[in-house]
Amino acid sequence: MDSPERTWRDRYMARFYPRDRGWVDGTTEFHALCAEACGRGGTLLEIGAGPSNDTSRFLATLGELHGLDPDPDVKGNDALVTASVLAGERYPYADGSFDHCVSNYVVEHVPDADAHLREIHRILKPGGAYAFRTPNRFHYVALVAALTPHWFHKLVANRLRNLPEGAHDPYPTVYAMNTKAATRRVAGRNGFMVERVRLVEKEPSYGMIARPLFLGFLLYERLVNSTEALAPLRANLLVVLRR
Description:
By secondary structure, this protein is an alpha/beta fold. It has one domain: Vaccinia Virus protein VP39 (Rossmann fold, 3-Layer(aba) Sandwich). The chain is built from eight helices and seven strands. It has helices spanning 4-16, 26-38, 54-59, 113-123, 140-147, 150-160, 180-189, 211-224; strands spanning 42-47, 63-69, 82-85, 98-104, 124-135, 193-200, 236-242. β1 (42-47), α3 and β2 form a beta-alpha-beta unit. It is globular and about 50 Å long.
């Protein structure tokens, strides 16, 4: 039987974000973006694959999926054909090794965005896509993260999202390529065409600890989705770069 806390979350999500009335959650939209950008049947590298997760499992349905991560936990990811642990800036693959690359909430942790895109450009085949989702630097979550020490993130981030005990602590954030303008600048410097860059605000995942927080963040979501003029304040960037 669900706990009372779980019950209110289910009720609120069903009431304010009903799937049967067309609401598409953020992960579903990101997966659709990856499928459109990458197609099916190629070789894919998930950069920052981490341990087993739903996005890796989805990407594995699109083609032969390989994973790269500085965290050795990537070795336990059950969706990967191969898993490599990153040591340093150079990726352990030959030039033109992959048809496409994907990252899910990784770019915000990369200290040198130019080095990151240079390596992706090197290992992609001509015409290959790099699709990624990353927080917008001007969203309240990223602003708080930028203004507070990492020990504070570790203390509160998983609790606010109501993640289960034992969930991985958040990684340190840098936000070196986390606006539309920064994405376009860094992509252009490193040989990529910006095929798509879109700002989205989805369900209030950081409000899952308490009803008042959920409702406050819900009002923010309704506001920034009410007009394109407020799009720069939305939570996430969905990006496709093309080599």
